[in-house]
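Weekly puzzle thread! Below is a chain. First person to post its structure in token form gets bragging rights.
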Amino acid sequence: MPGTNLLSDCPTFRDQGKHMERLKPAPDVIDRIRANYIFSEMTDAELQQSLTHLDVTCYAPGEIIFQQGDHATRFFIVCEGVVQLFRTSPMGDKKVIEILKAGDSFAEAVFFMGGNYPVHAMAVDHVKLAGIAFQDFNGCLVNNVSLAFRMMGGMSRRIHGLVNEIDRLTLGTACQRLAFFLLEQVQAEGGSNASTVQLNAPKHVIASRIGIKPETLSRILSRFKEDGIVEESGHMLTVLDVQKLHAFQAEGLKNY
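Winning reply:
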């Protein structure tokens, strides 16, 4: 059943006629929200006002959060788990647009544009989301112009970062793209050498995200392991040579 109550603070919720229950967010949820760029510059009073409009929902692995073309009514912050955003072509081809982890937000751009969700959103594993309805959040912004401008500034910085990321993930070689993806994971873990990171999505999803075939990703990753750049154990990957990954990202290797 959609929106299964996996945790005590995860009420079942859907826009399509389902019962909605608002509970006081748990401390870990509040921490994730506070760290997100939308809420990071809010005063304590502004944050508390926003939290009164918040809903926390859990999704099972593979569950659709919303579909491409659905009427957009809210945006979300990932509190736990991994969410993938993807589009499908008329021929049924799937392209992963973004892989989101705890602390990331999505669908906030539609808040300003209105209309329908431009992508599908799906839970990759067990996911806890904090959602806020556009109508409720609009009330917060109408009464606080300063907050509205701070939010737009944060969105502009994020869009600029995404444009740079798209360049790195589409214009480089397959080796450069995978190197960049792994370096992103290392940076998220603190950026040190010999960093152990968790692959936050299946390899075929990561391959789609960086625009290469799954077999190409597996081949390059195998070469990385043979050359002592990474070690792999299940979903855990230890990057042994961050500097070499940086070199691959900058130059690429034709024989990879």
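Puzzle host: Confirmed. Bonus trivia for everyone else. The chain has two domains: 27-168, 172-251.
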